[in-house]
Design goal:
28% helix, 3-stranded mixed beta sheet
């Protein structure tokens, strides 16, 4: 009954969207058939014919990166998002899936078939594909080689935007010093150099600086204007107690309190670390804000409400950033990362990955709502994929986080059985901590399987084939979705570093080969 109602609604929407007389010379329209998918395709065709490429310059650019959000994750998140609202799920579209332009991005690093986030984000932020582990450093530098890296820094689109007089912002639900956000403002030959204590002996003397200090010492324009995420420990000295947890302290050995240094820059600079302080930020005051809401990564969206001091959602941070940055008459550049989609996948925990992807889609929707498509290029993509699979022939409307199965005549979910006589979930991983065949698991009873309630639970770890402590990245292509000025330039299959070049072209800024 639920499926039938959903299909009727889809057919009704399709009929509304396709209503109206055809213009002169237009192809004849098919009459409504009552078939939701047929009529919906006609409505989509009519809508796509109205799309015209925006070829003017972009005043603003927002680059959204969901770490680890490959096409399989998008499909599963789409269904989860719909089902969370009581729909069957499959007919749903996430906000960015409605964007008019698409391309596929090849994600490999110059030295890695399956990439890491440092090399992939460097490609997007600088226009240069590079080695795994390098942050805004070209491939000519070996990893961890400070002296070699100093000669091949690659300017980022945030740096170039600052030099052009635009406002800039960086948001992440991971640590602000983590690979993806770091590659927008810092240059290091090793992604692990997040604080000064992480630098190897001799690196500081040779001229290298840790990632956190580079955000504060940003040398271009008036510095990054808006930065929010986790990673508080990397900005505070060892003798400073963490404001949210008396049992923790900062991690810096050089004695610098980078949060205090941010505040000292001007009367407009502010530091916030909890939800109440975030809510109190007044965009009309034109502040320059550093927000650090956790000692390490921010909470998963599913766990955010339980945070002791409270922290904003990705959508809330995105809205606040746009409210502040859009006050600059010269425009702005903003990077927004949903960093914890990746972390949930590494844990083999599909539920948290899909919930964070759902929140990411809401942040994109907020950005699209708050900006003008004629002047703002929005690019939505991922840095790399993961190994999550989506299989098992489940019937339409089956719980995406549940056991693969079908509905009986009474509408009751009935799981399929594998050849060992046991059910299996729709989602799984090629490798990871959910592997059955590894040390410490009693297999005397055969393959262990949870019941439907367990499998659908937030903390369930989907089964995997190869036992690894952490599920790994995947080497598959990821999708680029785009709208606004220059979006039409995304089509076909492209190298990941192409994203930077479209951004520069849209902003009418010349990419620079060297600093």
């Amino acid at each position: 009954m639920k499926l039938y109602a959903a299909l009727l609604m889809s057919a009704s929407l399709a009929a509304c969207a396709s209503a109206g007389p055809a213009g002169a010379g237009a192809a004849p329209k098919a009459a409504a058939t009552g078939d939701a998918w047929f009529d919906g395709a006609q409505a989509t065709l009519a809508q796509r014919k109205t799309v015209k490429p925006v070829k003017g310059a972009a005043k603003n650019v927002i680059l959204f990166v969901a770490d680890g959000m490959d096409p399989t994750t998008v499909a599963a998140a789409r269904i989860y998002d719909g089902q969370s609202r009581g729909e069957i799920g499959e007919e749903n579209l996430l906000s960015f899936e409605r964007f008019p332009s698409l391309a596929m991005s090849k994600t490999y690093n110059t030295d890695a078939q399956v990439p890491d986030s440092a090399g992939t984000m460097t490609a997007m932020s600088t226009g240069f594909k590079t080695r795994a582990g390098l942050i805004a450093v070209r491939k000519e530098s070996p990893r961890s080689d400070c002296e070699a890296s100093l000669k091949v820094h690659a300017p980022t689109f945030v740096e170039l935007a600052e030099q052009a007089g635009k406002a800039t912002g960086v948001i992440s639900t991971a640590r602000l010093t983590h690979a993806t956000p770091a590659a927008t403002y810092a240059h290091v030959p090793d992604r692990d150099w997040e604080k000064d204590a992480d630098l190897p002996e001799g690196a500081y003397e040779a001229g290298c600086r840790d990632i956190a200090s580079q955000l504060i010492d940003f040398p271009y324009g008036d510095g990054v204007d808006f930065a929010m995420g986790g990673g508080r420990a990397n900005f505070l000295p060892e003798d400073a107690k963490d404001p949210e947890d008396d049992g923790r302290s900062g991690g810096r050995k050089d004695g610098r309190n980078l949060a205090a240094e941010w505040v000292s820059k001007s009367d407009a600079h502010a530091f916030v670390w909890n939800k109440a302080q975030f809510d109190a930020i007044d965009p009309a005051a034109d502040p320059r804000v550093l927000g650090l809401f956790e000692g390490s990564h921010m909470e998963f969206e599913a766990d955010r409400e339980t945070d002791a001091a409270g922290e904003p959602s990705l959508e809330e941070m995105t809205r606040k950033a746009i409210e502040i940055l859009s006050r600059d008459d010269d425009g702005f550049v903003l990077m927004v990362e949903a960093g914890r989609v990746d972390h949930a996948h590494h844990a083999g925990n599909a539920a948290r990955a899909l919930i964070d992807a759902q929140e990411y889609a809401q942040a994109v929707a907020a950005a699209a709502e708050m900006t003008d498509d004629a002047e703002t290029l929005i690019v939505v993509t991922a840095d790399h994929g993961h190994t999550m699979s989506f299989a098992g022939y489940p019937e339409i409307g089956n719980n995406i986080l549940g056991l693969a199965g079908y509905f009986d005549e009474d509408g009751k979910a009935v799981p399929y059985e594998a050849h060992d006589g046991k059910p299996y979930p729709t989602l799984g991983y090629a490798n990871g901590p959910g592997a059955v065949f590894h040390d410490g698991v009693d297999l005397s009873g055969g393959r262990p399987v949870g019941d439907a309630e367990t499998v659908e639970g937030l903390d369930y770890h989907q089964p995997s084939l190869v036992p690894t402590g952490s599920e790994t990245h995947g080497g598959q292509d990821v999708t680029i979705y785009a709208s606004g000025p220059g979006a039409y330039l995304f089509s076909g299959v492209v190298e990941q570093n192409y994203i930077f070049h479209v951004i520069m072209d849209a902003l009418r800024l010349a990419p620079q080969a060297e600093e």
